[in-house]
Amino acid sequence: MRSATVRSPAKINLALAVGGVRPDGYHPVATIYQAVDLCDEVRATTQPSGDIDVTVTYDGRSPTETAKVPLGPENLAVRAATLLRERAGVSDGVSLAIRKVIPVSGGMAGGSADAAAALLACDLVWDLSTPKAWLVQLAGELGSDVPFALVGGTAMGTGRGDQVSPVLARGRYYWVLALAATGLSTPAVFAEYDRLNRDLVPPDPQIAPALMAALRAGDAAALGVALSNDLQDAAVSLRPELAHTLAVGEECGALGALVSGSGPTTAFLAGDEEHALDMSLALTRSGTCADVVQAVGPVGGAKPIGG
Fold first, then answer.
1. In the prediction, which pLDDT does 60 show?
2. What's the predicted TM-score (pTM) here?
């Protein structure tokens, strides 16, 4: 048997612009992803039976969250292993052990991170040496955020978010993440977005030039002002308590505050590490969220950490 362990990062959407729903049911988006050092790990071990199975352990706040991670073929990491095996003509099976750190259904692409890690880990244990470009293509078949989890750093996503290209970004950014006790369904948030905008024709999604300029300059204060998320109103509509969490962070002098992706995690940009610690303590004392963690970005995408 062979084993490989791959670590894969969570993402924050610095900007998320959403267009009107297409005939296929998807919304075109334009987004700027940033990978942060909150990571899941996937350990792949070959098994000659031909089976693909998965186990999940959870590091963090609530062991009950593991119940939300499917353990059957619908698990995104299992789907990733299955897709790679089919395309590569592999007969061996694999056992996947997922160590969860990224919040489940938190708008930070934890499932996508697991899928990216599984693709890379299985590629290693099956000794396939698949070109990175092909793995990214397979990742796009699995889900909108999976290609970015492979690439990492700071990048633009277009289409469904799966067409990823790097952007010039300088600097190191300190984030405070306020985590909710329960997750939010991404389809439910998009449905609420459609309901709130049913009388409008959303424009083609575009990223504000001010945000791109802030990233090029490494200007955290300017980046904070330019943060945006078209899904934020929908997430707050479904979870009104998120407005209170956002208000606490803003009162603490956050350079910027927004709901991460489809939520319910809220992200606050701090000026430095000390500011991040002060904001974390204030959010914890406020009782408006289940837990608070600090993260730094950007970091690289999925990478092996040992056999």
1. 62
2. 0.91
